[in-house]
Design a protein that fits this description.
Structural class: mainly alpha
GO biological process, one term: transcription initiation at RNA polymerase III promoter
InterPro entries: HRDC-like_sf, RNA_pol_Rpb4/RPC9_core, Rpb4/RPC9, Rpb4/RPC9_sf, RPC9
Subcellular location: Nucleus
Pfam families: RNA_pol_Rpb4 (PF03874)
Helix content: 55-70%
Order of helices and strands: HHHHHHHH
Number of strands: 0
Radius of gyration: 19 Å
Distance between the termini: 39 Å
Keywords: DNA-directed RNA polymerase, Nucleus, Transcription
Oligomer: single chain
Largest sheet: none
């Protein structure tokens, strides 16, 4: 990140910046015990860090390598920066979620391309403890119930 004020940041990057700020503030308080930070700033930092660190947030388990990998794998789809950012932040797990993220999705992509994107997302931004399975290629006419089952995440024993 070159200029923190002019970039579209993923939740992972925001979490990293806030953790870094928190550590710097703690170091400053150690060297200057009388130093105070605005209470509302500390509250906001704490709440955002808690939210983005929760198990429900994809940013809590992402790594820079995963983000770089997903971006490289999604290059061929000509997604906008904001679409890629939303994919990273939301980690869609089914076609419906992906269609909500991609503008004019039905006009821009065929169902096979969307299935492939979901598979890429599931493998490059995995949910810890869950495995991604791809549907057999012969099933092209999926109804809504089968579409929702495209990625199956059984719990590993």
């Amino acid at each position: 990140i070159i200029d923190k004020r002019n970039a579209m940041l993923s939740n992972y990057e925001i979490l990293a910046i806030l953790r870094e700020m928190d550590e710097k503030q703690k170091e400053q308080v150690k060297t200057k015990p009388n130093m105070k930070f605005p209470e509302n700033l500390k509250t906001i930092q704490f709440e955002v860090i808690q939210n983005l660190s929760s198990t429900q947030s994809p940013s809590s388990t992402q790594t820079p390598e995963q983000i770089e990998s997903i971006l490289n794998n999604l290059k061929k789809y000509n997604l906008t920066k904001s679409e890629k950012l939303q994919i990273i932040n939301l980690r869609p797990q089914n076609l419906v979620d992906l269609e909500l993220i991609i503008e004019d999705c039905e006009d821009r992509f065929k169902i096979d391309a969307l299935r492939e994107m979901i598979y890429i997302i599931g493998t490059k931004l995995p949910i810890p403890g869950k495995v991604v399975h791809r549907l057999e290629s012969g099933q092209e006419n999926l109804d809504d119930d089968e579409t929702m089952k495209f990625i199956h995440y059984p719990m590993e024993q």
